[in-house]
């Protein structure tokens, strides 16, 4: 008897909760996000999430979109490629999201994009720069520049600004972003009359780079291009210094993390990387963004946070303009994005669903990044 009663109450409760949950979600626009909130690339996911949340909070505070509030559902993939695909499947089939924001790392965006494409769910990567990502299909967009441009920027900087003649490259094999960017840099640097004196490999999660660095040291490069992610780059900088290597390290956006200097310490100071925005900008959009972000999170936003914010705002604008809140209508509006005044620059989505934007080169100065130059496409 008691058992029956308990069973009845439990079922009633389950029914109520699912029913309430259901009506609640009906008045909400469900947006999915997948990112690395833990693991060796955790700051990528965490910063992006903060930027996205800030954008959606601002919109919800003003009443939302078409009378509905946006609800963000975030999945942590721990920086694992397999998990990225599984997360996106869950977001679409279980959570029934209408659109997706993610990923940062090109490899994970590429692994998950076919799933979004098959289900007709628009996906916007805030920061994946490998060209292949958006080639997956017409539902896949990005709001950042791509690596053929980023690699050219750093080759130009090495050759023009630093007057380098000999460059060494250290690439993370198995990381599509790193390999793609290394290839572009090497090809462009050679076109500019430079020589690639060493092209060495490592893998994400490696901790000992002494063998490669010793080999590279004997070739006496003027610069060392390391298009990797911050954890390994920090360690490479430290070990290079220990081996007496004085050539400056150069890299791409994958360096952008508050952890870069925590890991690399003094050894990373003076190195340069290309990035999506500079905190030194006087553009009112940037100034306002940094101010609000600092108020909300008590920290200075990195490029990931800025791109997450821009991706979320572009998605929201598309949802606002769409005649109806369907994935298809939203997709069509994202594709029409033109001259959007983002924190990371003016964003126009082109026919390949990429954004054509300028890049900045910054120099690492402890936890700060000194603005050096802007390079236009
Ligand atoms: N562009 C990198 C990639 O495609 C990801 C990244 C973007 C990392 C911005 C840091 C900052 O893999």
Write the layout of secondary structure elements.
Blueprint: H1 2-26, E1 28-35, H2 42-61, E2 69-76, H3 81-93, E3 99-101, H4 106-119, E4 123-125, H5 132-135, E5 140-142, H6 147-161, E6 166-172, H7 176-191, E7 195-202, H8 210-217, E8 223-225, H9 230-242, E9 249-251, H10 259-264, E10 272-275, H11 284-297, H12 303-321, H13 327-335, E11 340-342, E12 345-347, E13 359-365, E14 368-375
Parallel strand pairs: 1-2, 1-3, 3-4, 4-5, 6-7, 6-8, 8-9, 9-10
Antiparallel strand pairs: 10-13, 11-12, 13-14
Helix pairs in contact: 2-12, 3-4, 6-7, 12-13
Phenylalanine (PHE) is lined by residues 44, 104-106, 127-130, 177, 253-254, 256, 303-304.
Q: What compounds are bound to the protein? A: phenylalanine
Overall structural class, as computed from helix and strand content, comes to alpha/beta
Cα distance spanning the termini: 75 Å
Return the average pLDDT rounded to an integer.
94
Number of separate strands = 14
Q: Note poorly predicted spans.
A: 19-23
CATH topology of the largest domain: Rossmann fold
- The oligomeric state of the chains shown is single chain
CATH class of the largest domain: Alpha Beta
Note the run of SSEs as H and E. HEHEHEHEHEHEHEHEHEHEHHHEEEE
Quickly give the CATH architecture of the largest domain. 3-Layer(aba) Sandwich
Question: What Rg, in angstroms, do the CA atoms define?
Answer: 22 Å
